[in-house]
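Can you please make up a whole protein chain along with its backbone structure tokens because I've never seen that pairing?
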Amino acid sequence: MANNHVALPIPTETCKLGFIGAGKMAESIARGVVKSGVLPASRIRTAHHRAERRTAFESFGVNVLDHNHQVVDDSDVVILSVKPQTVKDVALELKPLLSEKQLLVSVVAGVKLKDLQEWAGHSRFIRVMPNTPAAIGQAASVLSLGTGATKEDGELVSRLFGAIGKVWTADEKLFDAVTGLSGSGPAYIFLAIEALADGGVAAGLPRELALGLASQTVLGAASMAINSGKHPGQLKDDVASPGGTTIAGIHELEKAGFRGILMNAVVAAAKRGKELSPS
């Protein structure tokens, strides 16, 4: 067994990736990794007893095994993608099977690295928080390295999760705030799209047209915020002509406390995330 203080880099060219848990998030990550060419499907494996989940992974070439221990035995990187209430039992089950050459990654919401490391008896751990747009390759993922994870480990995991969207690295203490913003944020935007569409209907638009315009407008505005190099406030000012239609709408949003409401939503979700996390 390798020395406790030496974690050899895992080369992408030979890396074998295993998923413990074969749900929708695991499927999104696996599909993205294959589609982007980061790893071939032949080097990805998982295990599941339900036929529909097995079929979902087999449909794009992933090897579906019968037991979790087979996945661990044949993987360099093991991603835990199970429900928070079961992750402790899963980690304890895997503990005797793990070697120091393996890198563990958790996408389990609300479960801290110190607990994961203790349960698995393994410090080469990285925690990642993706969000639901992973399903279409547009995730916002944040990762934090455990005590035994190396810079190279972080780079490898960034490549894997870069296959399903954008990746940031942050201290784990920020993860509750990440939950409140990017974890819960898609739901806030879905509400905004629905409300914009309702406004269009109220102003006389057919429902289908209103929803299409609202969705595409949010997509286009987000793309401009990412790609223009301008602050969102400047982009807003660029649209708002003196005495025009946009500033009239913005005035109504400001009177209703629109920005404060969104800020409060993020803070409330972050607070709830902290309450739900084991101490």
Remarks:
- The chain has two domains: 17-172, 183-276.
